[in-house]
Amino acid sequence: MSDFWSVIGSNPVRDADDVDAALERISSRLDVMTPNTLERFAEFLHEALFRIDRRELAEIPVYLSGLEFEQTSDHFQYARCACILAGEKVYGEVLESGVGFGLFIAPATQGAEGLLYLASETYERKTGERLNSQSFFPVDSMSNVQGWSD
Asked: Entry's InterPro entries (predicted)?
């Protein structure tokens, strides 16, 4: 969906304020979409998250106060959302080479998880029904078997 990346835009995601501002901009863009377009947006989001669900990205450590920790599956999901918030160019670079993904593994980007819910919340407000995403790509960590194989 070519419109997906225009809705996402290109956003700094250095801290929680950046993430909140990006989510607000995306939410306002989703508000004008039809239910069918919201479904396609959500489906493309799921596919984008699935494509960067890869072992080498999940194994990048988290650094807090000089200490190194492993990413949890939740933190990995938040980091993938933050990567998408950064925009098509950054996402493409991470997808191609993995370079730069470490920037999204930070407590300040955990709010990027909100990206997962924007389209479905908008869809529900417009239709009064829940968005059925069961046919979409799975977004849980380790869902992309090819991305986790050695």
From this structure: DUF4240 (IPR025334)
Instruction: Give helix then strand counts, H and E, for the chain.
Output: 8, 2
Both tokens of residue 78? 């938040």
For residues 120 and 139, give the distance between their C-alpha atoms in angstroms, rounded to a whole number.
14
| Residue closest to 42 by CA, chosen among 131, 149, 150, 148 | 131
Amino acid at 135: S
Vertex 134: Cα angle to 48 and 110 (nearest 5): 45
State both tokens at 74.
């939740």
Structure tokens at 48: 């984008």
Q: 94 in the Ramachandran plot: left (φ > 0), alpha (ψ -120 to 50) or beta?
A: alpha
Q: How far apart are CA 68 and CA 11, in angstroms?
A: 27
Q: What is the pLDDT of residues 14-39, one digit of tens each?
A: 999 999 999 999 999 999 999 999 99
Q: Give tens-digit pLDDT for 99-138.
A: 999 989 877 788 999 999 999 999 999 999 999 988 889 9
Burial class from Cβ neighbours inside 10 Å (0-12, 13-18, 19+) for residue 124 reads: middle
